[in-house]
Amino acid sequence: MDRGNGGGPALHVAVIMDGNGRWALDRGLPRSAGHRAGARAVRRVVAAAPDLGVRTLTLFALSSDNLKRPARELAVLFGVVGEYLDELAAGGASGPRVQVIGRRDRIPKSVADAVDAAVSATAGASGLRLRLAIDYSARDALLQAVRSAARAGGNGADGALTVDSFPRFLDPHAVSGAPDVDLLIRTGGEQRLSDFLLWECAYAELLFTDVLWPDFGAADLAAALLAYGRRDRRFGLVRAAGAP
Length: 244
Prior knowledge:
Layout: E1 12-16, H1 20-26, H2 31-48, E2 56-63, H3 71-91, E3 97-101, H4 109-121, E4 129-136, H5 138-152, E5 183-186, E6 205-208, H6 218-229
């Protein structure tokens, strides 16, 4: 877990990518155009993140609640996600190392296959760890983790469930070792977590911006990291008098 004082770039940045629909409506465009513009923003941010010191980037691509949206919009969303996964797979080890969290049993088979292909093709990548949350709910992940941990008897050093042993149960497809979130960014002006990474964000710094996701880019990410760097992260401790 990174428990620095915020003096350098964040190791793990998570983003709730909000505002695609409003971006499109503001321009008199269908919501599908907003989702495609949002995919372009993903490409910009993923490209910029390593040079800004981000080692792990988790993007909220599709929440479990999003599955309640109209079938036509979901088809566009799944299409955009699938296309991006295909691009990542084609990049192989030269791009980011792809990991996907969330359920696999409710997404189209074509997208599930694209997930498997991207994860497999990029497994040897050594740069940015890119985690995509697809059909993801933190509450659901926590419930499933508790059930898995109970079946495994805790799996701690003495068989007891601990803060250190619990994260391995959070997602059956997740790769262990992802650090806690240092900085959570939400675009689009809303100020809520929306069932995203509730365990991993226990000590995260939160940053909310009015910028709609399709307009978000490298400069916005750099500004967010600069703001993060100015924050004093004490994790419950009291800073000694006169300490820098």
